[in-house]
Design brief:
By secondary structure, the protein is α/β, with parallel strands linked by helices. Helix content is 35%, strand content 24%. It is built from 11 helices and 12 strands. The strands form 2 sheets. A 6-stranded parallel β-sheet has the order 3-2-1-4-5-6, with helices on both faces. Strands 8-9-10-7-11-12 form a 6-stranded mixed β-sheet. Helix 4 links the parallel strand 4 and strand 5. Helix 1 packs across helix 10, helix 4 packs parallel to helix 5 and helix 8 packs across helix 11. The N and C termini lie far apart (48 Å).
């Protein structure tokens, strides 16, 4: 970056992503100007580590006039956070999960419509280089079906300060918290594809402490913009012990193409660095990567798939 460094603020420290984001902000030449979290001690520690002011409220954070706000609140805190920030001073990007339920999704819709600030959201996997390369490779082919697996050990969701992530009504449980990665990968490959119908299942291993699920699956049909027919999709979401795994198989008219993301190089290979680069590139135009008009289908698919698998529809 050249010229005056972009000023980035952080609203909410609900999980680990803001810490990686802030390091990438600084590595790309931008400046952390402030942070707010309901846990004042966490905000002060973040500010001491990355710089800027520990603001007493989201409104106080907005008064710092940042060029970009990266928000990571719990889902039930997203709407008040957006309302406090949505005066048009800066684009707001919300780290996953932005909505865990259909009711929360409807509330986000209303809030974004009322906001004068651009709002975006996505999983970092949208910016995974191997995934975007696969999308370019299959773009011209006739896609016959897609199979996706997203795995992230849900043990961390059992910790006292993160148990909300394991609660289907508060944070979405494994099906939403991990599942959003699967539906984000799908959208990179088939932009705008919407889950039309499907069936599913959930499982929890014996003795598991989870209040949601350790494994779940959905077999569905996708409506894809411009496609003459619906496309079948299989999604497996797991939170079992072990390393992360994010994999896609795309069946095309000319063969099967697959990718398995390198989880040992998370910052680059999983898209953390690419996300921040995209946000900083968009901010001077008062825009955001993954704007809500495009990102909404991923959130809707994630919530609908969770409802299908749990038998809530």
């Amino acid at each position: 970056m050249t010229g005056t460094p972009l000023r980035v603020a952080f609203a909410g420290l609900a999980h680990s992503h803001p810490y990686t984001d802030a390091a990438n902000v600084q590595s790309l030449g931008a400046e952390v100007v402030g942070v707010h979290d309901e846990d004042a001690g966490a905000a002060e520690a973040f500010a001491a580590r990355f710089g800027g002011t520990a603001a007493a409220s989201a409104a106080a954070l907005a008064s710092l006039r940042p060029d970009l706000v990266i928000a990571t609140p719990r889902p039930h805190e997203v709407v008040p956070t957006l309302r406090a920030l949505g005066d048009g001073s800066a684009p707001v990007f919300v780290n996953k999960v932005i909505a865990a339920t259909t009711a929360q999704l409807a509330e986000i819709d209303r809030t974004v419509a009322e906001s004068s600030a651009p709002v975006g959201t996505s999983s970092v996997l949208r910016f995974a280089p191997a995934l975007t390369a696969l999308a370019a490779e299959v773009g011209a082919d006739d896609v016959l079906g897609v199979r996706i697996h997203a795995q992230h050990d849900n043990a961390a969701f059992q910790l006292p300060d993160r148990s909300w992530q394991d609660d289907p009504r508060r944070g979405g449980g494994t099906l939403v918290t991990v599942g959003v990665h699967a539906w984000e990968m799908l959208d990179v490959l088939l932009p705008g594809a919407a889950l039309a119908t499907g069936s599913g299942w959930t499982r929890a291993r014996r003795g598991s402490p989870t209040t949601s699920e350790d494994a779940a699956g959905v077999d569905g049909r996708l409506r894809v913009p411009g496609a003459a027919r619906e496309i079948p999709v299989q999604v497996l979401v797991t939170g079992t012990p072990g390393p992360d795994a994010y994999a896609v198989d795309v069946v095309t008219a000319t063969g099967i193409r697959s990718v398995s993301l390198d989880v040992d190089d998370a910052n680059q290979a999983l898209g953390f660095h690419g996300l921040i680069r995209a946000l900083l590139d968009a901010a001077p135009q008062r825009a955001t990567a993954a704007p809500w008009a495009e990102a909404r289908v991923v959130v809707a698919n994630t919530v609908r798939a969770a409802d299908i698998a749990r038998g809530d529809v």
